[in-house]
Structure formats: structure tokens, C-alpha cells
Amino acid sequence: PTNATDHLSLELSTTQVGSQYVLEYTTNLLAVPQVFIQAAPGVNGTGGSITLQDPTNAPVGDGRFYRIVEY
């Protein structure tokens, strides 16, 4: 994000129908155990591309590390 109206967006170019994709983040990759927080509701796979967004308007440099989990 570059300003208060931007959101982090990640696009998956290929998804599986029947799967759900969830964007999660942590602020500490060294924590044991690592704790990831769901950033937004999951998105169902379409067989094509989908876009996942963090709608929280987290400031640039706040130290969020993201992953996408497939369920």
C-alpha cells in the first residue's frame, strides 16, 4: 500500500475449483510457534485467477509477512 486508500493485493493465476484460499499475515516470523492471522474472508477457487486483498489499510513498513493458505 502507498496511501490510506490502497490495499495489499495478491493475485493467484491458477486455483482449484472446490478449494478456498485465505490470506493470512504475521508480524513476527521468528516467533515459536508462528501465529498467523486471517486478513480477510477466504475466496473460493474458480479454476482460473483470483485476487486476495488485505482490507485493513496496514501502513507501509508495519512488518507484515503474508502467506496464502489453500483449504
Could you explain how this protein is built, in words?
Helix content is 0%, strand content 38%. The chain is mainly β and 71 residues long. The strands form 2 sheets. Strands 2, 3, 4 and 6 form a 4-stranded antiparallel beta sheet that branches. Strands 1-5 form a two-stranded antiparallel sheet. It starts with 7 loop residues before the first strand and ends with a strand. The model has no long low-confidence stretch (mean pLDDT 87).
What's the arrangement of secondary structure elements?
Elements: E1 8-12, E2 20-26, E3 37-38, E4 43-44, E5 50-54, E6 65-70
Antiparallel strand pairs: 1-5, 2-3, 2-4, 2-6
Summary of the model, kept short:
The protein is 0% helix and 38% strand. The protein is built from no helices and 6 strands.
